[in-house]
Amino acid sequence: MLIASKTNLQLASKHLSKHDVVLAKVIANSPACTIVPHQNYFQELVESIISQQLSVKSARSIRGKFCDLFGSDFPTPKQILEKSVEELRTAGLSNAKARYVRDLASHIQNGSLKLDILNTLSNDEIIAELTAVKGIGEWTAHMFLMFAMGRLDVLAHGDLGIKNGIQKLYGLKALPSPQDTQKLAQENKWHPYESVSCWYIWQSLDNN
C-alpha cells in the first residue's frame, strides 16, 4: 500500500511521465504534487459533509460558525451529539447536513465506524465503511482516501473536475464515463499512482 511521501510522490511523477505523454506535459508545467496525509479523520469527514456543494468561501464561513458553537477548535463526536439538529443549523448547516454530521458522530460514538482501524483496510473496504454513513458517498470517500489517508492508488472517476480534465487533455468528444476513465488509466499505466494522476489533472484545470 503506497502512501504519499516526498519520495513516493517523486517516483509517481517519474512513472507517470514515462508512461503517459499527455500527463508528462502537465507534470512538466506544474508544481510538485502536494498530497500530505494526516490523522484528523473525523474532522476531515465532518468538513467534507459541511463543504458539499458549497464554494470554498461559504464552506469556510460555516465551518467557523460550526466550531464557535462548541467554543473549541473542533468538536468531538460526543459534543456534536449533545447538540440538536436545530442547534447545528444555527451555524448555517442545512437540515440534511446537520443530520448527516450527527449520523457520522453517532457511528463513531457507538463504534460502528472505527476510524482507528481504517489503515488496516483496503480501499474498497474503507469506501464501504464510510458510505454506510448518511451523507457520505463514493466521491467523499475517494477524497478522504486521497487527502486524509494519502493513498496513492485512488481513481476519482466520479469527480466532475477529473472528467472535464480528461476530456480536455485527451481530446474526447464527451465527458468520460467511470468505465472510460478506468480504461484510460489502464492504457496509460497510471497504477499504482492514480491519485497523483488525478492531482495533476486538477492542476491542468487551474483549479486551486
> In percent, how much strand structure appears in the residues?
under 5%
Most strands sheet: none
Count of discrete alpha- or pi-helical segments spanning 4 or more residues: 12
Q: Write the element-wise H/E pattern from the N-terminal end onward.
A: HHHHHHHHHHHH
**Separation of the first and last Cα atoms:** 27 Å
Summed over residues and divided by their number, the pLDDT gives a mean of 95
Sum up the overall morphology in one term. elongated
Question: If you compute it from the alpha carbons, what radius of gyration comes out, rounded to the nearest whole angstrom?
Answer: 18 Å
State the helicity in percent bands.
55-70%
Going by helix content, strand content and strand pairing, the class is: mainly alpha
Poorly predicted segments: none
Number of strand elements: 0
Give me the secondary-structure topology:
Blueprint: H1 6-19, H2 21-28, H3 41-51, H4 56-68, H5 77-81, H6 85-89, H7 95-109, H8 123-130, H9 138-147, H10 160-169, H11 178-187, H12 194-204
Helix pairs in contact: 1-2, 3-7, 8-9, 10-12
